[in-house]
Amino acid sequence: MTMSNTGGRRRPPTIHDVAREAGVSRGTVSRVLNGGHYVSPAAQEAVNAAIRRTGYVVNRHARSLITGRSDSVGFLLTEPQERFFEDPNFNVLLRGCTQALAAHDIPLLLMLAGTEDERRRITRYITAGHVDGVLLVSSHFGDPVAEELREAGVPLVACGKPIGLGSKVSYVAADDRDGARDMVRHLISLGRRRVGVVTGPLDTPGGVERLAGYKEVLAEAGVEFDERLVVSGDYSRASGEAGAERLLARVPDLDAVFVASDLMAQGVLTALEHAGRRVPQDVSVGGFDDSPAAAAARPELTTIRQPWDRISAEMVRVLLAQIGGEDPAAVILPTELIRREST
């Protein structure tokens, strides 16, 4: 660490100290710090070694004045704040994205926008240039945020395919439809024929795709589709419990339920217990996500595993590529059936 001339106090190392230590010009150090363009491998290694030896830390504010970038990314959840704390999927995804960005020394800003006023304020903040790009989570059909950010030229990657925007917005998604097909095939393979479903919100890609997969497998198996066996939820535990109560009232001899999230499935298990129905002896229950809620359920949930680590890593990769000037991209990742005690 370099010493100052005032009282022997330590001062932070500067870019000049790095240049002197590496034996290169200040301009070469600057180019290394801004991506390494037009720098030889030997010079880049010398600068990186000098940074490690001196303990130099980039002054992000100063660099942002030069590059026009904030060197930060937003994690935008367009749901009420209580949903962030209730649904374990959001925390898993946030942690994965934070870790993926940490490898690039980029901080992640959590933004919650569950109301129209909050969405307006956060959209203004983002479009003013306070973040370089946005990871958008839980987009609903008709929600203007994704379209407004796209029109403003903000690099954007959604978790799940935003309904109605097609190829205009980058997204990373698990294969919701195929995962639903795997679960419903599994339930039918157990001899179940009165298979109910508690869907996610039908203005979200997961809600639409998982219901479509359910219907496709019923047709494939020659099981007649019955509207009474379909109820919708909002991915909360309470909506799962209410949905199961409606199903039991409509179809008392229900023998299986496919639930579009593990958290809702916990609510379904509660409703079945209150109704005196044994799981899995009387009713088989399958969830979706393989979130911590699946292992915490009693009995433990058979579920569809979403590859959360890969989803978060791909969201970050696609976003950084877009910030670097690449075109929008779409990534769809496979799911996996995880068998446990509930089926």
Quick structural gist:
By secondary structure, the chain is α/β, with parallel strands linked by helices.
Describe this structure in words.
The chain is an alpha/beta fold. The chain is built from 14 helices and twelve strands. It is elongated. Mean pLDDT is 88; it is low at 1-7 and 64-68.
Topology:
Blueprint: H1 15-22, H2 26-33, H3 41-54, H4 60-67, E1 73-77, H5 81-86, H6 88-102, E2 108-112, H7 116-130, E3 133-137, H8 145-151, E4 156-159, E5 170-174, H9 176-189, E6 195-199, H10 205-221, E7 230-232, H11 237-250, E8 256-259, H12 262-274, E9 284-286, H13 292-296, E10 303-305, H14 308-323, E11 330-333, E12 336-338
Parallel strand pairs: 1-2, 1-3, 3-4, 4-5, 5-11, 6-7, 6-8, 8-9
Antiparallel strand pairs: 10-12
Helix pairs in contact: 1-2, 1-3, 6-14, 9-10, 11-12
Rg = 25 Å
* Helix content bin: 40-55%
Query: What is the CA-CA span between the terminal residues?
Result: 62 Å
Mean pLDDT: 88
Using DSSP, what is the number of strands? 12
**Order of adjacent strands in the largest pleated sheet:** 2-1-3-4-5-11
Task: For the structure shown, list the relevant keywords.
343 residues, alpha/beta, 6-stranded parallel β-sheet, 4-stranded parallel β-sheet, 47% helix, elongated
